[in-house]
């Protein structure tokens, strides 16, 4: 009981310290980025109308690293996670400074993702509903873990195209992972997830529209790395039923966005790593949403899906071998609402576009502009 209370206090302290560090440090990092010339200039592919400094990921890194050292026992897994986070941030910062060829960037991401696996953070087993727990040999679990971490790093990076969008989605994901990890008796991942939540909320103070600083690749790769590693350390390594689905539901928005973009690029024969304006947030802008409205809409979508993940964890319709009517109805209702929200997003992005020739023409012009600048 006392240990649980202490864990909850450390969760709150970790989030609060991260929040304070990022709020205070971000303006200094932005000033440094301007002095070094690391800024995003306006362009046809970008949404900002003025030069905005990058490198916000440096502030996020210290906002995560310092409270992690303060509130987490410096065990083997924590060392591996923090070392990997440092490498991920460094790779992103180098890309922010001078740009990296896609294979150089991918190599750095793989190197960062491989570090925590060497310290014991890898998928040892999967728990499938009905079938049960299945152990994985190291030669399968380690490559799967690296692939998962690299994928989430790139998904968060792809999502970071709208003021406050990636930070808000990562804050919601951190909050959800924290609650689930606590319920699974995993205090260390819960504390780190709370730290991510605090850091992202603190960054939103400077990053929400109109943004005064961007997180850049340094921040996007850092947040993607930490969330992916947390999902393995706090969820996928447990034997709890349905933990396989928690990360997929919580991170569904960046997963859907990346899947859609990759499919589009393959359809039109463009390289997967080439930037364009086919992301979900660009499509919201094309149908007339403001940056604020588009970001808040996608936050709401992420929050609804995260709520479904929490319902799956905390409402137990089949406890002790007996089906319970109330929890069953609750899960079905929440799941139906999450599905309806997702269908509504498809309606907004596809049906509204098809019904409006002006929107279709605007998307065509955006694709042509992206093709010219590629």
Structure description:
Helices cover 74% and strands 3% of the residues. It has 374 residues and is mainly alpha-helical. The relative contact order is 0.13. The mean pLDDT is 84.
Average of the residue pLDDT scores: 84
Indicate the proportion of strand residues.
Answer: under 5%
Helix content: over 70%
| Contiguous runs where pLDDT drops below 50 for at least 5 residues | none
Main sheet strand line-up: 1-2
Using the alpha-carbon principal axes, give the shape.
Answer: globular
Gap from first CA to last CA: 58 Å
The number of distinct structural domains comes to: 1
The count of DSSP E runs of length 2 or more, i.e. the number of strands, is 4
Summarize the structure.
The chain has helices at 2-36, 56-71, 76-98, 102-118, 138-159, 165-183, 187-207, 216-236, 245-250, 252-267, 280-286, 291-314, 325-355, 357-373; strands spanning 39-40, 52-53, 125-128, 132-135.
